Please model this.
Amino acid sequence: MISTHQRDRPVSDIVDLLDLEKIGEDCFRGYSPATAGKQVYGGQAVAQALVAATRTVETNRPVHSLHAYFILAGDPRRPIDFTVARLRDGKSFTTRRCDASQDGRIIFSLTASFQAQEDGLAHATPMPSVPDPESLDDANALIKRFQGFLPQPAKIWLERPCPLEMRIVSPQDVLLPEQPPKARQLIWFRMKESLPQDQALHRALIAYLSDMTLLNTALLAHGRTIFDPQLQVASLDHALWFHSDAWVDDWLLFAQESPISGQARALTRGQIFSRAGALVASVAQEGLIRLRDK
Model:
């Protein structure tokens, strides 16, 4: 991803992507960006389903957790319909299920829980010791630094228009898989423009972005990357927990690891910290990682 203004896309593009069309009682419709690939991006499905569920919940109950399954590959050329089921409206917690469908077939299913704010016992894992994002290379600098080694798909990924700014803490581990394998990576990220101070929007954006690099963490342990044409890689399920308010237009650190892989599946986990060091969200995902026969 890149930060030069010539290749910038406005942050409003991704915000508009999450502004679903209401088509009926607890029914909504979403679309994919014109630049989408062959399949709907998993984080888009998670975020749009979360937006649909959130619109059926009282505004004073933010989402605190979601669990989702990717059932079929979505077609980004067709709209996606989201149907919300109101499972429970309790005194403290609200539960919703949202099914996403295309052509009458469910392609994705999410269950989310919302909670009224309350106090309780508190502790948290400290943020890893990392350099400040301003001291790290941006995408342009990474292209120049690794231009003799970057595979073409990685270069295209770094150069593509994106409203997100990223700083990779150890880019050699991510971009040069022949380095000593490490099943972990640390990435700073933020949106390039200021956003409305709407916590529901920021949590939906975190859901959107939480799928972006997780499975690559598992591949690093084997000296491979997501750009390897010998691999078939896909998200199978996704879980996300929000611990406190988080703001995506300020720097967030995404600390990721993969504790195990096998039987063509890999488990990945991540923790998202604020610039101040607070643990604001946690994520887990299992994905398909299959060696292609040809």
